[in-house]
Amino acid sequence: MSTPNDAIDGIDDDYDGYDEEDRVEDQIPQEDSLLDRGVDDLLDEGYSPPDRPYARDRYDEHETLDELLAAEEPDISLDDPDDPESEFPEDAEIGRRRAGRLVAAGGDLTDNEDELLAWDVGIDGGAASAEEAAIHVIDDDE
Predict the structure, then answer these.
(1) What is the largest CA-CA distance in the chain?
(2) DSSP labels for the chain?
(3) pLDDT tens across 65-92, in order?
(4) pLDDT tens-digit readout, 14-32
(5) What are the residue boundaries of the structural domains of the chain, listed by start?
(6) Measured between alpha carbons, how far is 27 from 35 in angstroms, rounded to an integer?
(7) Residue 99, Cβ density class (10 Å: 0-12 exposed, 13-18 middle, ≥19 buried)
């Protein structure tokens, strides 16, 4: 029966590891290059993408605006624009006035009701957080 230590014992003890001479260099040295690009190392030069999109290469440069617009694809929408139910709330669902600091009744943090009720105690120095700025007041008559 072999043990895991037997597999380790079979390793050649005279392995020297990675040798610098074994490294393969794909890049030619700077002194062997025929181009003088003004950099010490060719890797310092970097890569500059073309100034035009590749899709323009398949057409002639003199396309009319109608041809360009015909090539565009409309945005795919899952919602029907004529559908009365939209993913965005209607005007009746959003109050016109922005709320300030909201304080719960009694100041306690317990939540025993289905709806959250709070009172607007005014704007706190005008520096509302994003969450506070998203809260709007809906009056009872709306």
Answers:
(1) 89
(2) ---HHHHHHTS-TT-----GGG----SPPGGG-S---S-SSGGGS-----SS-GGGGGS-S---HHHHHHHPPPPP-SS-TT-S--SSPPGGGS-SEEP--EEEGGG-----SSS--EEE---STT---HHHHT-EE--TT-
(3) 888 888 887 777 666 666 666 565 565 6
(4) 555 556 665 656 667 777 7
(5) 97-137
(6) 14
(7) buried
